[in-house]
Design goal:
Elements (H helix, E strand, L loop, with lengths): L5 E5 L6 H12 L3 E4 H15 L6 H9 L3 E4 L2 E4 L2 E2 L7 H10 L3 H12 L7 E5 L2 H5 L5 E6 L2 H14 L6 H17 L12 E4 L5 H17 L1
Parallel strand pairs: 1-6, 1-7, 2-6, 7-8
Antiparallel strand pairs: 3-4, 4-5
Helix pairs in contact: 1-9, 2-4, 3-5, 7-8
Bound molecules: 2'-deoxycytidine-5'-monophosphate.
Length: 222
């Protein structure tokens, strides 16, 4: 049995999982963070750059298995090149969502994800952290927010980065991605049976972080 604690934070796209995960890990003091979506996005980016088609499941699984990636603080490197911003492009996110349904690709990323579990603990965010990757995580949070709230947040993020964006297009994209993530046969987005659902539609980032920390306090004191 692995006794290193994991806080799994799953939820739909743009629910704020990533920011919450980093803040929770920081507050707990030196915990690692796994942004599992980044691995799917990196696979998508590598595939787009190599001209691999979205329906070539075999080549995509091979790409996932041989990814040369490196995480440093909040930066992500692909083959030695900083890909932190490149993987956030909508085109890459859409490709990631499309290819994430392939079982061999998911399998290729599984051990890579579990290797992030190091002392003193891990905060892992994604879609299947609580259900598949870390089913023994002592705390599983399913973070949700209304699609409109998520589209607003994504819009603000993009505008802050100087990337132009249309809120209606974002909302449409986000709904399509939700549907794909929830309806796929393999590791669909759904709360683990023992997950706690947290709705952040009307919470600030700080309030959401505090809510997760409170849950962790309760669990670790029990
Ligand atoms: O969390 P994100 O938006 O960066 O993830 C990008 C895509 O990767 C998402 O649409 C679905 C996929 N994904 C997944 O299938 N399983 C995970 N654990 C994380 C992400």
């Amino acid at each position: 049995m692995n006794t290193i604690p994991v806080i799994a934070i799953d939820g739909p796209t743009a629910s704020g999982k990533g920011s919450v995960a980093h803040r929770v890990a920081q507050t707990l003091g030196g915990w690692s963070v796994l942004d599992s979506g980044a691995l799917y996005r990196l696979t998508a980016l590598a595939a787009l750059r190599r001209g691999i088609a979205a329906d070539d499941a075999w080549a995509l699984a091979r790409t996932a298995g041989s990814l040369d990636v490196h995480f440093h603080n909040e930066c992500i490197f692909l083959e030695g090149e900083d890909a932190t911003d490149a993987i956030r492009q909508e085109e890459v996110g859409n490709m990631a969502s499309r290819i994430a349904g392939y079982p061999d690709l998911r399998q290729a990323l599984l051990e890579r994800q579990r290797a992030f579990r190091v002392a003193p603990g891990l905060v892992a965010d994604g879609r299947d952290m609580g259900t598949i990757v870390f089913p023994d995580a002592p705390l599983k949070v399913f973070l949700v927010a209304a699609p409109e709230a998520r589209a607003q947040r994504r819009h603000k993020q993009l505008i802050d980065k100087g990337i132009s964006a249309n809120i209606d297009d974002l909302l449409q994209d986000l709904r399509a991605r939700d549907a794909r993530d929830m309806q796929r046969a393999v590791a669909p987005l759904k709360p683990a049976e023992d997950a706690r659902v947290l709705d952040s539609s009307f919470l600030t980032l700080e309030q959401t972080v505090q809510a997760v920390l409170k849950m962790w306090k309760e669990i670790s004191a029990a």
